[in-house]
């Protein structure tokens, strides 16, 4: 497990984006998972800029979604799928056959989970997964208490997640469940990166890096990954021992 501390959000995003482009250069058909949300937004933008500037071909890459709000349609601007399509898939010209995202409106969520697990397994597993972290330590929608050994599953969202999640929507939206890759997907990935920035993430980063490795702090699972890395900015690192 590695901790990389960058000076600010821009530098954090640049370091993360470069890991994606370097992977694709070495493995053009890589399977990649990048979280949706505010934290990875600049990373996605920089990936697209690098791909254009350096003529990096993403057409053979595969992408899967990390998670989705159950019941939220893909055209809703607050959905994870909306973010990924507009910030990643379209700018990189990824073909539809190379994309597998959770259908939050599926009638059978268990089949939706199985289909995602099958898609990942059939392509040899995830090469690189990039996740953020919630203020309660969740990764994707793996809330505190979610078993490290789970693959894709549906989960009831904690009140904190329901409340904080409203920032992605233009109007008050009912958010009760999420569908998500499991933490075992992260552990199985060839490389796992957790990104976080800002003082608001400092407390959870300290607990994830220096506290007990436990399902009660899902972000701590990164420390079990032989090729896991925290990429954070100085503000998010401000409470770590030796960084005060």
Q: Could you describe the 3D structure shown?
A:
By secondary structure, the protein is of the alpha/beta class. It has a single domain, classed as Rossmann fold (3-Layer(aba) Sandwich), CATH 3.40.50.1360. 32% of the residues lie in helices and 17% in strands. It has helices at residues 9-26, 41-53, 80-92, 109-122, 159-164, 183-188, 202-210; strands at 2-6, 31-34, 62-64, 67-69, 99-100, 128-131, 153-156, 177-180, 191-196, 228-233. The strands form 2 sheets. The protein has a 7-stranded parallel sheet with strand order 1-10-9-6-2-3-5. Strands 4-8-7 form a 3-stranded antiparallel sheet, covered by helices on one side. Helix 2 links the parallel strand 2 (31-34) and strand 3. Helix 1 (9-26) packs across helix 2 (41-53) and helix 2 packs parallel to helix 3 (80-92). The longest helix has 18 residues, at 9-26. It starts with a strand and ends in an 11-residue tail after the last strand. The mean pLDDT is 96.
Shape: globular
Proportion of helical residues: 25-40%
How many separate structural domains? 1
CATH topology: Rossmann fold
- The overall strand count is 10
Terminal Cα separation, in Å?
21 Å
In short:
The chain has seven helices and ten strands. It has 244 residues and is α/β, with parallel strands linked by helices.
